[in-house]
Amino acid sequence: MTWTEPSSTATALLLLGRGSDPSSEKGVDCPGELPAPSDPDLVARAAAAKAALGDRLFVLGHHYQRDEVIQFADVTGDSFKLARDAAARPQAEYIVFCGVHFMAESADILTAPEQRVILPDLAAGCSMADMAVLGQVEKAWDRLGELGLADGTVPITYMNSSADIKGFVGRSGGTVCTSSNAERALRWAFERGERVIFLPDQHLGRNTAVLQLGLSLDDCVLYDPHKPHGGLTPEQLTSAKVILWRGHCSVHGRFSLDSVREVRERVPGVNVLVHPECKHEVVLAADHVGSTEYIIRTIEAAPAGSKWAIGTELNLVRRLGNAHPDKQIMFLDRTVCYCSTMNRIDLPHLVWALEELVAGRVVNEITVDADTAHHARVALAQMLALP
Ligand code: 13P
Ligand code: SF4
To answer: Which end of the chain is more exposed for a tag (fewer CB within 10 A), N or C?
Structure first.
């Protein structure tokens, strides 16, 4: 696949919520007649469709999904746990993935060919995953090759990347990682090479390299795919230990040092708990940092009366607050919003996708081509085998 800039028409259509973006890992068009959000029977309709499909259906819900959707999930989890859960249900004919596009792709890669993976709204992509496009990554890899550095460089991609990128990493001797095993992935890579290229989240890469592996900020360089040669000199690439891709999460990247200072002033004794997709200075100023599953476990283990400002997606923080009324749980920043693409999956889309399945029609199926899936599976299997 080659990387193409979206045309101005495509961009205009994208802004209108129609058409498709040729440079995105997701679609933006959702066919079909959706039920009205005001329909008072939506909950009953979703329940009836689920009951009609029985064991043929398995519904997965990411922790960042809305409550109205999570109530219908058979399992909830982070992106990797959900992919594994999908793979552990070979009897399910339909896997309905309430999450974003790259997660549904991973589920398709890890499930049997006859199992169908459905994303209730095709516009549920991930802006971070879109920040690393295969053509850009191949160009960066070619540059490393020209400089004689590719052999000593191990690619690692965060789970939050397209199947194309996972396939590239699988073909190039690297691994996938998640926010809970990024440290192990980096250590594994440094046993095989002298440098790592980390895609696409610069913050997870930097936070892990510096705070968990003890590298310095100067050991890391930032590769900007929109600049010639990534904006880096041959000397910078040669001396780098970690080449960070210039990508970030549009939700976690918005928490700031000011958010941390403000909440500490406003709430004496508060514990600040953030996801490693947050900026380095935010993570440094926080008391605890960890993956979504770590955040959930930390709050579950916290004593009654403790105070927590959490820097991760708002749906999860609100659910944690509701589940732990004996603890004071707040969102780290008053202005940061929900993940807009996670929130695309709402009850009307879920009801529509389920009722179509009951009628024998598979809508919004996510499929990864066999060659890409093969190589992406290699990178995912490598992650599973990390020591
Ligand atoms: P996890 O699902 O691995 O917790 O990642 C957080 C995230 O941003 C998912 O989109
Ligand atoms: Fe992507 Fe961030 Fe949304 Fe996760 S929270 S889907 S990384 S934009």
So the answer is: C
- Going from the Cα of 218 to the center of ligand 1, the distance in angstroms, rounded, reads 27
How remote is the CA of residue 308 from the centroid of ligand 2, in Å? 22
* Ligand 1 center to 63 CA (angstroms): 8
pLDDT at res. 245: 98
Band of the pLDDT at 33, cuts 50, 70, 90? confident
Is 272 in a helix, a strand, or coil? strand
> Count of CB atoms within 10 A of residue 324's CB?
16
Q: What is the pTM of this model?
A: 0.90
pLDDT of the residue at 6:
34
Tell me which amino acid residue 144 is: L
Ligand 1, CB within 6 Å, residue ranges: 78-79, 126, 159-160, 178-179, 249, 277, 291-292
The closest-lying atom of ligand 1 relative to the alpha carbon of residue 252 is 8
Q: Is the pLDDT of residue 1 over 60?
A: no
* Cα 65 to Cα 193: distance, rounded to the nearest angstrom: 38
**What b/e string do you get for 102-133 counting C-beta neighbours within 10 Å, with b at 16 or more?**
bbbbbbbbbbeeebbbbbbbbbbbbbbbbbbb
For residue 8, pLDDT over 60 is answered with no
**pLDDT the model gives residue 336:** 78
Is 57 within 8 Å of 357 (Cβ atoms)? yes
